[in-house]
Backbone:
């Protein structure tokens, strides 16, 4: 299956050149959102490999988005503002991780969810000239808003997340993450520095999510607390990862491609309530294909992901 | 002083809704160890059942508590049989996402069936209030509080005084042990999930009286309900009452006494939960 990754990359590179007639812009737009969804889902998956169920993706996405927008509006050069996204998200996640990573299971999930909700309200309530309050801010576009250019930048962002995922997968970190997920006590006995490793995964994931937030903002041209920090983003991230296949690199990416295209198609057919079909498909996958879609084409990889 | 008492009364009243919306979730988590993301949508279904009974048959939403609860008890049972029971032994994440899928489906089916516009009912007592000294309380919220306390007391009585209640507690404590002494674990799970679903629907009928019904009404409640059961300690029913009271009080006081506190009250709720959790984890370590 070694050809799948390179083949997918070639297809991704060719998307803006596809002969889509008058729909060219639309295709590139959908493809860009696929890249964003895939990057957020894969970043979520990286920290999920240590067994921590985080519901804070939206917080880090939003922090990255606001860091970029607020800096750019104050005249900071755009590339520097862009880098502030991952930096701010990473720094905040370090603080959050230190105080919450002792929590287990649902307790950790709710603590991260509560954090995200608080950050959302804080950004809504800060002085208007700072964050724009509930209305948000207009973000200066990167690359002059050039659609194809932004698509390739998005591809670059996703490739960075993929690189991080592969780096974890193919180093000793993979064993440390997996050991912690399967039992912290055993992992500690085996010599894994549990808290430090969990923190590493958490900060890495948050910084990557913040980077995606900064990128997405430069593509969407605005930030609004309700949307940018919305819990929906966190839930979509984990739904996408599980749909595609959790604890793998290909799974979240595949999940994002299929779910996003499905969503777009359904939206065209049913104008309202189209997400009902999405919900049913999600249920069917979990009931009949708990390893996610990747387990269809490679049963061995599913076993390796689920068991080892 | 009057403002202080009024704020306290508001807090007490609001805690009734919170406790009612969280009780079913606490039961499902405590017994089945299932985090039901669709709990808010069960609440929404209850609100719509009560709404349609009111519109089509002129039945008062308070009376509709019973049919709304019954409908969701049955629906919860069907959902349990068709899906939940198959993921009980799977990783936590799968169960969570399954119920999330159920929630999205119900929510969007409601959008398809009823449209996204909120619906409201009109009752005679909705705009009336009772006055006790310096404090004035709406009749509808007061009824919600009474229903909430009655149901929670009833649930407590069932769990501690009846045979089925003892079975439920046994299964919650030790599934294998309960199975070994001959309890039908699967049937008890079915009944428990049905009761939890019915409680959500009853909460929905009460929310209908106070606010109205809309397909998206559930999510806000389920977020808060999660927070409450976690603060209470998973599966702790008495704790749900206390956590609801503490959080509603914090919210009410911020709303009254902090200038422009309407928005900040939302954050206080989650801030309190966050610090409770963190404090608990550091004390335990």
Residues:
């Amino acid at each position: 299956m070694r050809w799948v990754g390179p083949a997918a990359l070639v297809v991704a590179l060719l998307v803006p050149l596809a002969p889509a007639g008058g729909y060219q812009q639309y295709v590139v737009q959908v493809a860009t959102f696929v890249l964003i969804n895939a990057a957020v889902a894969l970043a979520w998956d990286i920290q999920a490999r240590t067994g921590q169920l985080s519901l804070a993706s939206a917080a880090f996405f939003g922090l990255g988005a606001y860091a970029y927008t607020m800096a750019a509006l104050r005249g900071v050069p755009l590339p520097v503002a862009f880098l502030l996204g991952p930096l701010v998200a990473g720094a905040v996640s370090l603080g959050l991780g230190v105080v919450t990573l002792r929590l287990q299971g649902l307790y950790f999930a709710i603590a991260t969810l509560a954090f995200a909700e608080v950050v959302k309200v804080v950004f809504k309530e800060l002085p208007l000239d700072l964050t724009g309050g509930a209305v948000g801010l207009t973000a200066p576009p990167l690359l002059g808003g050039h659609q194809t250019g932004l698509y390739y930048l998005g591809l670059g962002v996703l490739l960075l997340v993929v690189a991080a995922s592969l780096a974890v997968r193919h180093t000793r970190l993979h064993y440390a993450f997996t050991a912690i997920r399967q039992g912290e006590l055993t992992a500690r006995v085996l010599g894994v520095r549990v808290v430090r490793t969990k923190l590493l995964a958490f900060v890495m994931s948050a910084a990557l999510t913040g980077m995606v937030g900064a990128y997405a903002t430069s593509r969407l041209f605005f930030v609004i607390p309700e949307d940018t920090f919305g819990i929906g983003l966190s839930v979509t991230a984990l739904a996408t990862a599980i749909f595609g296949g959790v604890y793998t690199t290909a799974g979240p990416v595949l999940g994002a491609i299929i779910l996003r295209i499905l969503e777009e198609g359904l939206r065209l057919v049913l104008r309202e309530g189209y997400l009902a079909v999405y919900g049913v498909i999600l249920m069917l996958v979990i009931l009949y294909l708990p390893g996610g879609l990747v387990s269809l084409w490679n049963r061995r990889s599913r076993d390796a992901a689920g068991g080892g | 002083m009057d403002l202080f008492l009024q704020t306290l009364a508001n807090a007490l009243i609001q805690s009734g809704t919170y406790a009612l919306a969280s009780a079913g979730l606490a039961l499902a988590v405590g017994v089945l160890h299932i985090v039901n993301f669709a709990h808010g949508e069960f609440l929404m279904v209850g609100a719509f059942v009560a709404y349609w009974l009111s519109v089509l048959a002129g039945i008062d939403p308070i009376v509709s508590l019973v049919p709304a609860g019954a409908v969701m008890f049955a629906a919860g049972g069907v959902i349990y049989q068709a899906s939940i029971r198959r993921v009980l032994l799977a990783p936590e994440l799968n169960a969570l996402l399954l119920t999330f899928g159920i929630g999205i489906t119900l929510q969007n089916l409601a959008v398809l069936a009823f449209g996204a516009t909120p619906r409201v009912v009109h009752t005679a007592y909705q705009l009336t209030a009772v006055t006790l000294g310096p404090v004035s309380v709406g009749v509808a919220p007061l009824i919600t509080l009474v229903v909430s306390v009655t149901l929670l007391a009833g649930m407590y009585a069932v769990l501690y005084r009846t045979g089925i209640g003892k079975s439920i507690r046994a299964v919650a404590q030790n599934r294998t042990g309960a199975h070994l002494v001959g309890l039908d674990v699967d049937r008890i799970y079915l009944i428990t999930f049905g009761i939890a679903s019915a409680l959500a629907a009853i909460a929905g009928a009460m929310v209908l009286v106070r606010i109205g019904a809309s397909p998206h009404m559930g999510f806000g409640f389920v977020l808060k309900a999660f927070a409450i059961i976690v603060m209470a300690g998973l599966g702790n029913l008495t704790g749900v009452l206390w956590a609801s009271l503490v959080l509603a009080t914090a919210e009410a006081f911020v709303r009254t006494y902090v200038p422009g506190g309407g928005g900040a009250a939302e954050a206080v709720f989650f801030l309190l939960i966050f610090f409770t959790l963190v404090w608990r984890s550091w004390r335990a370590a």
